[in-house]
Amino acid sequence: MADDKEHNEGLEQCKIDLDYARLKQEERIEQAKLAVEKSKARWTALSIFIPLIAIAVTLVFNHFSELSKAKADLALETKRQGRIFF
């Protein structure tokens, strides 16, 4: 009788140990999945922001290019009329 009780306790402890090991392994798997999802989120954000930065740089360059062109056109027009502003 005592041997059966000890045997059952041993089996219960073994079952608890196996459940613990299974849960630890599931936790490691979930942590790995989380790391993959974080990496995907970073790459997605990067794929959105790089084109936005390129657009912003293009707009700034275009603004200064148009400003320079306008100044050159104004200088040319004033020179044609014989006045100098610069």
Overview of the molecule:
The model has no long low-confidence stretch (mean pLDDT 91). It is built from 1 helix and no strands.
The helix/strand series, from N terminus to C terminus, equals H
Portion in helices: over 70%
Number of E-state strands: 0
For the largest beta-sheet, the strand count, sense and barrel status come to: none
Shape label: rod-shaped
Strand content: under 5%
- Poorly predicted regions: none
Mean pLDDT: 91
Distance from N terminus to C terminus (CA atoms, Å) equals: 110 Å
Give the helix/strand class.
mainly alpha
Gyration radius over CA: 36 Å
Number of helices: 1
List keywords for this structure.
86 residues, mainly alpha, 0% strand
